[in-house]
Amino acid sequence: MLIPDEEIPGDVSVSGTGALQPDGNLKVFLNITKNGIINAFGSVLMAKNSFGVFKVDGYDVFVSTYDDKHIYAVLTNIEETEPVPEPESSTYLVQNITSQANINYGGDQQQSGRLGTHTVYWDNGGSSNNPNGTSRYIQFTVNVPAEGLYKLDFRWFTRGDNSRRMKINSEPYEILYFARKDINTWEDNVIYRPLQAGENTIRIWYHNSGTERPMDPWLFIDALKVTAYDGTAERNTFWNDFSNVLTLNVNALNITDADGINAALAAYEKLTDVAKTHLENEKSLLDALKAGVTELETGRDEILNNFGFADVLSKSITSLKITDAGRLNAALAAFAALPEYSKTLLVAEKSLLDVLAVRMALLEKGDTVTVMLEDWLNAYLKDKGNGVYSTYLWSDKSSSGEETGFWQAANVYEVFNDYYEYTTDPAEKELFKKYMDGYRTRFLDGSFSWSGTWKNNEYTDDLLWWSNAFIRTYTLTGDESYLAIGEEIFKHLYMRAWDTREISDAHYYSGVQGGLLWKFNKSSNWDGSYPDDSNNSNEKNIATNGNGTIAAARLARIYAAKGDIVTSGYYADAAKGIYDWMRASMVADENTGKLWDNFQSQAGKNGPRDWQFSYNYGLFGGAAYEMWVNTGDDSYLADAKLVLNYGWATLTLDDGLTFKMEGGMDGGDGASFRLVFARYTGLVVKSPEFAEFKKYLLANAYQTWNFRRSGDGLVGESSIFETESATRIPSPIAAYGVLMQIYSDFNPNTTYGFENGLTKWKTGYKTFAEAAGDKTVRFDTHFITGGNGFGTNEGPSSLFDYTSLENTGTNTKYGGGVPYWAEWNYDNAFIASRLIIATANDNMSWPRRMGDGWTLSGSDDGVNWNTIYIGKANDYSNFNNTFYSFDLTDNTAAYSYYKLNSETGGDGTTVQLSVVALAAD
């Protein structure tokens, strides 16, 4: 039986790893383990994207390769424990056991190969120029006695998910998906299709459709089982799924039965015609139930209209404001006064009112932590209902709900640590411990899509994020299992990555001996050898050494508390050594606290990288803080304050408080940068010596609270504008808002001196809201179309994302030529009273790139347009993001569609803008 990397009969298993060779081939190392002990081993040289069967000390091993990260190895000469199934009644087994001829292949480069006792045909991808399957296909022929519906079940083996085109007889082709699986498994991809009496031809071939193209194109098909289908299985499933609906009484219906009845009817329509013949009585019952509940809904609508409070019932927990308290209380009182029968028809409305009442209580209490945490978890928590308790979705959009990447997931996990430390509620602590346990389980068993277990990761900093997170969980919960894994990760990394070599030309880095290396080649992960870093492919950075210092310092403190002075001393020495290297190498300016990001292998010759990322300042400050806590040495305290001060002074807007954007909305590393910076600022502020930094946390808690997205309560990248509903928000970015509430003690019912995000981001320049007169319309803006000749960096849709307000000198939004125009619409029509335009000119030689004149038009339907305004700016001398405001007080018509045109550019050819917006009185 073919089982990859698992126990098979005799407790024998095989594993394979690969090392890329200079000639581009792979050297595959194979270990045969029996009863937990290596029984045989060997290596073979193979090309990438190839397969074969090899002898290893008497064992036959089938090996297929994609690259050095994707090796698949199975034993093929172990006695099978699962025989090929015999054809069942009304089943036609189409199988190739070397003698049958009714499976065949065609075209060029098709091959067959032995897998244990099976002979299979494989298709290695074929060509995208072969859309009709005229070459490179796998084909089955099956004879059935009568026309009808049949169940088709393929048996196959593939290393990764695959998509293929399938064509039955002369019918149009369809897309069929083959998931990664063992070749002996039936019932993985059952489909129901009509077949004609007599001979039927089923052909499968390559499918290439952009994102649907599989990473691993190999597909081995062994057999096809075709079963005459009578629909009883579908009938039984339907009975089981909707037993609660099928037992309802037409004369005793409740309004809450509507959803179940509608779901049953929808499921019925998806059944095969054969299955429907078994459910005629059930369909009649469902129709009667539908009629009955419709009658109830009609009466409910009349009661609901009389009840009123449509404004309250249109609210959600994320759009609810504290000013809604009066209307909400009135609605609850009105519901309580309804006759009992009316209440039974407004169950959903009462449920909503109760949910809103709970949220209102939190708002009145000023509990922003619970509010923002609940909204964040609602968007990103997955599998809670299944008891896994694992939050790992990257995006709030279900269409792009991929898992959070390896190192960023550690920082999302840390939010659980943050809240666990914050809350005093035992029930909340118990719940969040389950979240942490679920995350740890997935981390250890490799069930995240991270290419296997954590030991496969070649990046030292990636693993140190997790080491720190788990060590911190131990300090909060006392659960020794977290200390065990956190310490194991650090010990492996310290032995592997601490650079003990003498300074040489080949390994120059910063010119200071020591430091933790950023990464290791996978082939040398744990053997103590150094990677080849002569080609500048490696580096030493703050992300690695800052994390390393923090982990070692925390371990030293833990073992000191346990009374283990020897182990504590070992980790204390490690922390000091790592910190000393970082202090000597990564501080760019001793007076200001400016930091470098990294040195490459030979960067001492070329200079360090001057990348200004906030997480460097958080990690360095956090590392210095941990050293100060352990030693009491005030030089560490001074270091922490110096770098934290520089970070907050340079990475904020001109108010010196509100955090700038750092990217990451596109899925990049920047999504977690400010999360790290904010966390370590929050952790050090717990000590009175760092009280001066509390103002930053409070200011940004204020901004994130006020710019939550009304639809779901999430915070995006911008600190001064609400993220639009269509924009996907990565989990770490949204978590930043939660973190600000946890560490700031912010209360929305308290008056602060902040400007609600409307700070002067550049001295002497108007902010967006100042230009609009503080009456900005914050409807979601929907870009429709625009032109002419927009630049390659950002198109005209970016005129409405407001992101340039937090940048200086942006030139990423512009039209490459004239006429320049953009068309957009809003969800609601309104009377525009002011037009705001911001420049994006990046060339002082052409200071008039705002345009020589503008025409603003409005429309009810996007087809028929009326002119609202014709005019131009009087001053073109300003550069970059300069705001201009145009008075539209003569406009008295409300429109939902708007269009802006400029016939000529200020320099005759080019217009450059960053923001277009409207305001209303």
UniProtKB/TrEMBL annotation:
Gene3D superfamilies: 1.50.10.20, Galactose-binding domain-like. This is CBM6 domain-containing protein. GO terms for biological process: carbohydrate metabolic process. It comes from the Bacteria. It comes from Paenibacillus albus.
